[in-house]
Specification:
single chain; alpha+beta; 3-stranded antiparallel β-sheet; 5 helices; 27% helix; 27% strand; globular
Amino acid sequence: DAHSIERHGGSVTDPQLMYRSLTGIAPDGHVKIDVKSGKVILPPMSSAFYSDQLLAYADDAIRNNGTLATKITQNPGAQYVTLTPEDVGDLGYDLGRGYARIGGSKLDPTLQGAPKLIENLRSVQATYGFNPLTNRWEPVTIFPAR
């Protein structure tokens, strides 16, 4: 059920990223809703990989360099783990770009300025979930981050 390709893959365009940063509406139409207010949450940055191959590279790197295994070990019994750019570090390539939200409220689009282009994103944020049917940790989301 990973949404990474549709929301963060190589086919996601800059206009789609800008639109999401201003409205909270992802390229696949998904919105995240604040449970208290019922309002759409604007992401701090809407980002995408330059290609699906770079997304796959980032996933492979996280699995092969021990980052995912370390996070799993630190969270015994967890069904989901999230790796931040601090956990992952620089993966050695310019993976993608994003548009950062400029403004003071993640819940009020009218308070936002023009989104700021952030290039040369060399790390990722990723959430993995354990699938007991396959006995594997599978990506829920993975996206370029700073």
